[in-house]
Amino acid sequence: MSLSISPSAALILVDVQPDFMPGGALACHEGDAIIAGIDELLRQRRFRHVVATQDWHPAGHVSFASSHVGRKPFEQIALYDQPQTLWPEHCVQGTPDAELHPAIDWSTLDAVIRKGSDPAVDSYSGFRENHGPHGNRPSTGLAGWLRERGVDEVFVCGLARDVCVLWTAQDAVALGFRASLLWSLSRPVTPDSDAATRDAMQASGIVLG
Ligand SMILES: [Zn+2]
Predict the structure, then answer these.
(1) Catalytic: which of 55, 91, 115, 162?
(2) What domains does the chain contain, in order, with CATH numbers?
(3) Residues in the chain with pLDDT < 70?
(4) Active-site residue, 115 included
(5) Which residues pair with 187 in a beta bridge?
(6) Whole-prediction pTM value?
């Protein structure tokens, strides 16, 4: 991968967890195809700052269809006046399928941001939770962590390209970082979402990396 990486750039690896791989509870299309490339990128040690996010839900989380009577996975409901997709139960805290993927050498990670641990609020972005009961989007602390290390640019990859990766890159731009989405090191949960994801990236000022 030919990337121009400055010392003030960070790599953000979003939700590279078994539950998002084929065979997992919330499988992304060809999600396992990114494992070798991410492992190689980490081994190259080209980024001075490397962060992973980890979807990390308590049992009975509000994003699970099973938490809503009569609802099925992938239905949409209104939650705090915002659309909320209901998902299969996934990335339950402490379960093996919620771990960072075991086939990747994570030893060069600087930080792990766990998200989605509020039982009543979902969190797609690594920077801010989704809309919650008070109308705000609580910070995960990632923006401050990056700024205090002098980071002004982020490269985002992982799963799912059309949900948590996109939201993370969009929030990065909204919070003042330059952001690139590493397309080949991401995969979508919805296979026909690529055109919409590219449109959203362009509208948000995210660079295709
Ligand atoms: Zn989740």
Answers:
(1) 115
(2) 9-56+98-208 (3.40.50.850)
(3) 1
(4) yes
(5) 159
(6) 0.96
Q: Do residues 79 and 67 make contact, with C-beta atoms less than 8 angstroms apart? A: no
Alpha carbons 107 and 19: distance in angstroms, whole number: 21
Chain segment 98-136, per-residue pLDDT in tens: 999 999 999 999 999 999 999 999 999 999 999 877 778
Return d(Cα 141, Cα 138) in angstroms, integer.
9
Q: Cα–Cα distances in Å, from 169 out to 66, 70, 176, 189, 203? A: 29, 34, 11, 17, 12
Name the catalytic one among 15, 19, 55, 171. Answer: 15
72 catalytically annotated:
no
Active site residue 164: yes
Cα separation, 148 vs 144, whole angstroms = 6
Q: What is the pLDDT of residue 110?
A: 97
19, 162, 164, 171: which is the annotated catalytic residue?
A: 164
